[in-house]
Amino acid sequence: MYPKVLVILAHPNLEKSFSNKLIIESLIDKNILVRDIAKLYPDFKINTDIEQTSLLEADVIIFQFPLYWYSVPGILKEWMDNIFVKGFAFGKDGHKLKDKKLLVSITAGSSGKLYPKETIEKIVFPFKGLADYCKMDYLGEVFSYEMADYSEEAREKTKNNAKIHSKQLLEFIV
Predict the structure, then answer these.
(1) Which of 64, 92, 133, 138 is the most buried (most CB within 10 A)?
(2) From CA 174, how far away is CA 172, in angstroms rounded?
């Protein structure tokens, strides 16, 4: 039995994604709640109350996104700026997410050669800081490379990579 898991999916165009779609489908099969914030908020007007309530109801929060220029897609940054605010996530009468678990799930289309350990550490540093500042428990990250489908061979490799990625996520939350 899994704890109550919430995935904050931040893919600007999930319909055109191959790997993120596969990962999300495998998580939904486990009765994990997924909030596709790009689909919910195409205008970037985030409903803070709904999103904060979703976080409060979860035990584990997963940020799922494709890497964009060594960072997060714009919708995730906007979402975080609107949701992790003083009085809710930190500050006096804040820390409402205290002891919740945070896991970061990142996909990259390119080769792992571009992402040595030091680079990944820099990419996930803001999430570690967020968890620490909000008194959350940072579980770690799952980072997968070569998640593209440019050819039939690449598509098959991506399918396998997505299965491995999903399995690693589930291992963190069991």
Answers:
(1) 64
(2) 6
State whether residue 110 is helix, strand or coil.
Answer: coil
Of 96 and 174, the structure prediction assigns the larger pLDDT to 96
148, two tokens: 């593209």
If you average pLDDT over residues 92-117, what whole number do you get? 91
Confidence band of 149 (pLDDT split at 50, 70, 90) = low
CA distances from 94 to 15, 30, 81 (A): 36, 31, 15
User: What pTM was computed for the model?
Assistant: 0.94
- pLDDT at site 5: 95
Question: Which tokens go with 103?
Answer: 């896991």
How high does pLDDT run on average in the chain? 92
DSSP code string of 10-60 = --TTGGG-SHHHHHHHHHHTTT-EEEEHHHH-TT----HHHHHHHHHH-SE
Closest by Cα among 67, 63, 75 to 101? 63
- 19: closest CA among 146, 144, 171, 147? 147
Burial label, 16 (beta-carbon count in 10 A; 0-12, 13-18, 19+): exposed
